[in-house]
Amino acid sequence: MKNKIILTLGSILTATTLLAQTPDKTKLDQYMDVLEANNKYMGSIAIAKDGKIIYSRSTGFADVENNKKNTAATKFRIGSISKMFTATMVFKAIEEKKLKLTDKLDTYYPNIPEASTITIAQMLSHRSGIHNFTNDPSYYAWSNIPQTEAQMIENITRGGSDFEPDTKADYSNANYVLLSYILEKTYKKPYKELLTEKIIKPLKLTNTYMGGKINPAANEANSYGYMGKWEKDMETDMSVPMGAGAVVSNPTDLSQFIEALFSGKLVSQASLEQMKTLRDEYGMGMFRFPFEEKKSYGHSGGIDGFTSFLAYFPNEKVTLAMTSNGANMNTNDLSINLLNWAFGKPFEIPEFKTYNYTAAELDQLIGIYTNTQMPVNFVISTNGKILSAQASGQQSFPLESAEKNIFTFSPAGITITFYPETKRFIIEQGGGSYTFTKKED
User: Which CATH superfamily is domain 26-342 in?
Assistant: First the structure.
């Protein structure tokens, strides 16, 4: 759901070989210990084989302010993995002959642009062209305020259409908010009840439900960003994401859910095949994540400071589930190492180094940086201990440094190299390199 300078977990995973037997857990425990000791990852993970958990681990704190640790019982907001639950319920409705993939949006919301041509199938596969409201600069001004259905429809309608329906695919949370409301209208029940009736009760899930205001006393995690210390992130009101990102769960329940989905316990094999089929890299409620010659299916998620990842390898019957309430690293690196372990491949335990700056050295770098060829500025600031960067319309993110004047934000693969003598920096991300110059006071 969120709109930060963070790459999704959908990047290519690399490793190999079959899982013949459960690998030794000692090195993986050491790896997780290092991440925890260096404030890199707070959350819970689970790896399952043939429906049985073969490794699980929780790190960090569910409630930093009250020193409450994450445990196997901690529940996390899972963000866009919620879309897998919503898509599953849509296909159940189709199998019950209550909906059809060809049904048009104008049956429910005729005032949304292009509603007369947009279908259920196009919304499921992000081919509707409906604008993604979480991309709007104003989103964070209202995302923590309760929204009625009418208000959300107004927000979505105001965004308009980004392209002609079915001409391409482009991720939009609006699709799954609308699908949530369509399910409610179809069954004349709230999404929360439908989730319980259609998925939670049949699978006997004990830690999954539609979220509300975070309640640490009920083993729900707060979310955090790392700014030299863990600082509590904002809290989106769950009336905003609905079935696009409002589900709460944990790795054990997520593993059980995706294994049930792929074993025919929730929808038919024909429905599952439709969900798995990709057009322009998008399925219907899921993505495909390759791991060298292997193929997994699942979804990633992000909302506030929460990130999540769920993948199932049908041929190997291996599941990876990750839920985090604070990540100060590229969690794709973590998923790769977890899968390396699961498939018996070697992996390295990283060594984290830190360059210690004086306050004067950091002060030399702060300011507003511009690039005349790009409509974005960067504000570089410091709290006296660490440096932070904030791009126009984005949230601030912390920078780490292991070498003088070279800073990184590993969750997004960003490197910023400062040249204080010429008042410039070069930012590198995803193969691109851009020079920004400090504005004069």
Answer: DD-peptidase/beta-lactamase superfamily (3.40.710.10)
